[in-house]
Amino acid sequence: MKTIPVTDVRTAWPTARGGRIDKGWVRALVNADELAPIVVSRDEHQLIDGQHRLAAAIARGDKYIEIVELDVRDELDALEHSARANAHHGLPLTTADRRALVRAILLRAPEWSDRRVATIAGVSPTTAGAVRQRLQDEGSVQTGQFRVGRDARTREYVAKSPGPDGQHVVGVGPVSAAPRCRGWHLLERLRRLVRSILTALRH
User: Fold this and answer.
1) What's the predicted TM-score (pTM) here?
2) DSSP of 64-127, one letter per residue?
3) Per-block average pLDDT, block size 10, for the chain (203 residues)?
4) What domains can be seen in the chain, in order of their start residue?
């Protein structure tokens, strides 16, 4: 456990709540005997979890606040930690919070699959897909030919024919008729080369 000045906590990174503050919850925390430590990044003390606790500490005039330092790679990694933390304690995320979280993740990782994003944000893949579609319509993100799933494996996606509701259904998996990108061809050539070398070594 470590204590730092409240003014040293930075709030430039997005959190699971997207910056939304519940004033009633802050008032309840102000009257608490003590505040649980907030979670910050180790290098810059960017806030990851504890938005309301930080607000309560500021409201009651605390000069210092207890922190737990976490090693994170970037904003996206911090968002994942923030979402997991909010799933187990504190004020539950609202539906609006969760949709905002999906949006924040997709803006930083549009290549992630709807199912992967949904798992982190605590929504259905359908909801994640709807937010993605809105971002695409806005021109905020572009949908590529490949998506990265929950297992970190990259798979090819292709838009199928419109469904009964007129909406395009997105499929997953290798599709032989779909156009391949140059990088995919190079990867396949490398795989074939490795296979041939391994075969030669066995004989």
Assistant:
1) 0.69
2) EEEEEEE--SSHHHHHHHHHHHHTTSSSPPPHHHHHHHHHHHHHH-TTB-HHHHHHHHTS-HHH
3) 94 83 93 93 94 95 96 91 82 88 93 93 94 93 81 75 48 43 57 67 60
4) 1-92 (3.90.1530), 94-203 (no CATH)
